[in-house]
Specification:
Blueprint lengths: L4 H7 L6 H18 L2 H5 L5 H28 L6 H16 L8 H10 L4 H29 L2 H5 L15 H26 L1 H11 L9 H18 L4 H19 L1 H11 L10 H18 L10 H9 L9 H12 L1 H22 L1
Helix pairs in contact: 2-15, 2-16, 4-5, 4-12, 4-13, 5-6, 5-17, 6-7, 7-9, 7-11, 7-12, 7-14, 9-10, 9-14, 10-11, 13-16, 15-16
């Protein structure tokens, strides 16, 4: 493995949940203190329709994880049991939640899959294939969204300035372009390494990590290059139908995640009697699109899981769809549905999984 077992087990320590929780809740608490509106909350009632939409929002995350599980089952060729896949997904999500968004849990996923009984070469192939399809989803969907939705509506929040020319002076556009560029570069790198010239990618990595300030990671870079070569041999044998099935699971997984806010907003609207908010189909598509753009923006943030930035950008970027007084609360609730569960569930699963791994090694 490219990393030692001790380093890997240290990185999945349950104690890691403290940092993102403190950052995220700290930022949200500050915003909530400034924007608290007791009068608005006095109007909120929780009826059965509100509860139904809340449950549907959580169900979207279940669909998302189930899609991930199906994809992992396809990529492993049935070699992984459903129980092993369940553990891997939650461990993967946990490490994604406690590491910067640009890093995610992909680097440790090879270790998780390998320890569930898959050889290192195939584990590398599975992880690189998932990374490739995840990035492909964003690379395809972002241009489609820009074509379907006027970029002004996507990036200019003040519609009185609807004639604004979208440029790098627009911070949302800037974050989206930088994040998209990173994803595109990574996708091209993985595609070239997996399907065109894996040995060339290994030689490039070795050359880069010979530089003095990168030399300490030279061994890991060489191992990564070896993993790409092995993964390339594994994945080139796969049929076109194999890739279609795996990408279909990927598409439904990510799309389900981006419908969460739509249902949370519906739950809130039905909880406020006589609310004048109404969402048309085009509004729902715009809300979905902004969530996808937010995810791309979060890629450039160095905090674990985008903590702090995610709450702040949601409160500003989605504010026009949320009744006054509920913006920050909705941001918090969104994170409680899509982010914090993985922190807490992971904190319980990690010790048990680590104990199992250590007992196997012994």
């Amino acid at each position: 493995m490219a990393q030692t077992k001790e380093n890997i087990l240290k990185q999945v320590s349950p104690r890691k949940i403290v940092i993102p929780i403190l950052i995220g809740l700290g930022v949200a608490s500050y915003m909530l203190y400034n924007d608290w509106d007791s009068e608005a909350f006095s109007m909120l009632t929780v009826g059965w329709i509100t509860i139904v939409f809340l449950l549907v929002a959580f169900f979207m995350m279940i669909i998302r994880d189930f899609g991930y599980m199906i994809r992992l089952r396809i990529l492993s060729g049935g070699e992984l049991s459903w129980k092993s896949i369940f553990n891997i997904i939650l461990l993967w999500e946990f490490t994604s939640a406690v590491t910067p968004s640009a890093i995610g849990g992909t680097g440790l996923a090879v270790y998780f899959i390998h320890k569930e009984g898959v050889n290192v070469g195939k584990s590398s192939a599975i992880v690189l294939a998932t990374a490739f399809m995840d990035e492909l989803y964003f690379i395809i969907m972002f241009p489609l969204i820009v074509l379907l939705i006027n970029p002004v509506h996507l990036f200019v929040l003040d519609q009185s300035m609807a004639t604004e020319v979208i440029s790098f002076t627009n911070k949302y556009f800037y974050f989206a372009v930088v994040g998209y560029s990173i994803k595109l570069a990574f996708l091209l790198f993985v595609f070239y390494g997996l399907f065109l010239n894996p040995k060339g990618i290994k030689n490039l990595l070795v050359w880069i990590f010979r530089l003095r300030f990168l030399k300490r990671w030279k061994v890991q870079a060489e191992k990564t290059g070896d993993d790409i070569i092995v993964a390339s041999k594994e994945l080139k044998q796969r049929s076109f139908l194999f890739w279609i099935k795996a990408f279909t699971a990927t598409f439904f997984s990510w799309s389900a995640r981006y419908w969460v806010v739509n249902f949370l907003l519906l739950a809130l609207i039905f909880g406020i009697p006589n609310s004048d908010f109404f969402f048309s189909i085009s509004d729902h598509i715009l809300i979905f699109a902004r969530q996808l753009v937010m995810w791309i923006m979060m890629l450039v943030m160095p905090t674990p899981g985008g903590s702090g930035f995610a709450e702040a950008i949601f409160s500003e970027y989605m504010a026009e769809f949320i009744p006054a007084g509920f913006v920050v609360v909705m941001a918090l609730f969104w994170r409680f549905v899509t982010y914090y569960p993985y922190l807490f569930i992971g904190a319980f699963i990690v010790p048990t999984w680590v104990k199992k791994v250590l007992s196997k090694d012994k």
